[in-house]
Amino acid sequence: MKVICNFISKHMAAIVLIIAALALFIPASFSWCKTAWISPMLGLVMFGMGLTLNPNDFKIVFSRPKDVITGSIAQFTIMPAIAWALSKTFGLPDELAIGVILVGCCPGGTASNVMTYLAKGDLALSVGMTAVSTVLAPFLTPLLTLFFAGARVEVDALGMFLSIVEVVIAPIIIGFLVQKYLPSVTQRVTPYLPAFSSLMVALIVGCIVAANSTKLLVGGALIILVVMLHNICGLSLGYLVGKLLGLNHKKRSAISIEVGMQNSGLASSLATVHFAMYPMATVPGAIFSVWHNLSGAIVARIFANANNDEILDKKGI
Q1: Beta partners for 108?
Q2: Which residues of the chain have pLDDT under 50?
Q3: How far is Cα 145 from Cα 155, in angstroms, rounded to an integer?
Q4: Counting Cβ atoms within 10 Å, is residue 297 exposed (0-12), middle (13-18) or buried (19+)?
Q5: H helix runs in 119-248, sequence order
């Protein structure tokens, strides 16, 4: 079982891509998967995140506040602003614009921690930023969505706040409590969590893509382009912010990946619950889930090689 789980975790990007392609070209294969399941599935992913969190993940907030504050500000300014700018530049219709903006206003995704590890970046900073942005999400995600999309569509900020608490914060707290009071159970299931989370994300993507396959096949090229640009701009500007502030390569890598990789599953969940009148609003989150795992793996390799070169330069080799 552990071998299978390791395989799933290692090849998450490929699995998500295969599931997305299957859902797109053979949507009937996902007829059993209902969009109403998106929020519960995301809740399970967040529960798994809670099982892996510990108080040390938050110590960085107090021991290195400058780094975390820098990363958090970048997280909640760069991605929402880029989402709004891309929606305007490409003249996206409301149902796609709200989906892109939702992705931009969401906190960092848990996959960013894995990619930062592969990039040989500052893993403690990445985990700390994910934890902090997730805690801030119930407040900032609704407010930012209202600010950037309120002129185009009606935004229920209070409803979004409650949804994020229900789907994200509550499962994380429950997972954290299980870890604290049932450590033996946690130790048994922890090795399987990365694979489980990967499968849940893949199912969320498959469910959304299958439900919108016809529209995607007809006019999906534009939204795919916008999603790719959104992610690439986030990765690039995140790294640039770190460089302008004089942070070392490890910190710049962590901020870049943390800014560029969003909790796009949450974006799709919020779109499903609060923007049901715009069916295509769920699509940008699904596409982002596929793309940012691919781009994250590529960027992680680039950053890891750059880190190796930096070490060799310091040694004079």
Answers
A1: 262
A2: 312, 316-317
A3: 7
A4: middle
A5: 123-149, 157-164, 170-181, 183-189, 193-211, 213-244
